Amino acid sequence: MLENAGRKALWVLLLILLQPQGIVAQDKHLFRFHAAVGTSVHTISRSDILMHAVRGNGGTLDSVTAESQRSESLTRWVEASSSGRFSAILVYDSVRARTSTTGGRWLDIPPTEREEAISRVVLTDRMEVLGAEYLDSPHLDASVAEVMRGAGAGVHLELPANPVAVGEEWAVDPSFPLTVLSGLRRNEGVPISGGLVATATARLDSVVFRGSDTLAYIVVVGRFMPRLEDGDLTMSGSIASTLVWSSGWRAYASAATRAVVFVQKRRSRDDPETTLRMRFDILTQTRVQT
Questions:
Q1: 245 neighbors 216 (Cβ within 8 angstroms)
Q2: Is CATH 2.30.230 what the domain over 28-288 is classified as, yes or no?
């Protein structure tokens, strides 16, 4: 009987040794932002936007398709920290945008004041933004979506509050900047400041240990909450993003976001015959520049 018990214990031990991934997957991981004062991170982003608009006027339909490309670089510098809070300066070193109607020539679009403004943000160790302000344009309101757009492929995603295991999900409400639409000239009154907020689910897809660095692959899928502009223009859509948090860089080392934004303009008393439907397909990619 003792011999059988010993064999059984040996088999259990072998099963444990042969299934290390199943056990590791149960481990929970805590991700935090702990950047030393004086450190900086430089990221570069690129966005490709395709716009399709259909305007109806009585029985007539007018359709137009345009595309836009954006590239920008961001430097984040930590100037102070205290009790788990960090003050960081965000500088968009370069912002370039150009647009073209389908088949037409490309036209450069000068950046807006908001796009080039230097900002200061106060962050927690979860990357939660407690406050944001434009240092060189104090008369402008600084939204989280705008100032943080270059840090994670257009998505500002806070780190989970509690330790999470691979495969675990949690609710998030990431913001997405409308600044990305500023490169399109025929935006038909669509706002190009502020952002859309999504109701989404984040999932820890995998964790990779690489020397002193830990990479957390996070997948986000959700839908934008409707945004109403001037009483007759509604914005909605969906978002899907993959972000890689790096404990070594203390930043999202790379990210890719696909967003679809729908715009619908209802008939108004001043112009009862005109309707407008637009669709923006946006692909944004960001990576840390070493």
A1: yes
A2: yes
For the chain, what are the domain ranges?
28-288
The alpha carbon of 10 is separated from its chain's Cα centroid by a whole number of angstroms, namely: 49
**Cβ-contact 67, 49 below 8 angstroms:** yes
The Cα–Cα gap between 288 and 255 comes to 9
Which residues touch 123 (CB under 8 Å, ≥6 apart)?
Answer: 33, 85, 86, 87, 88, 129, 130
Distance CA 141, CA 193 (A): 10
Q: Which of 135, 136, 154 is nearest to 144 (CA)?
A: 154
Which phi and psi angles does 274 have, rounded to 5°?
Answer: -100, 130
Please enumerate in sequence order all residues whose Cβ is within 8 A of that of 201, keeping only pairs 6 or more positions apart, or say none: 169, 170, 171, 172, 220, 221, 222
Distances (CA, A) of 119 to 28, 80, 88, 240, 245: 35, 14, 8, 27, 23
- pLDDT tens, 108-164? 988 888 889 999 999 999 999 999 999 988 888 888 998 999 888 888 999 999 999
pTM attached to this predicted model: 0.84
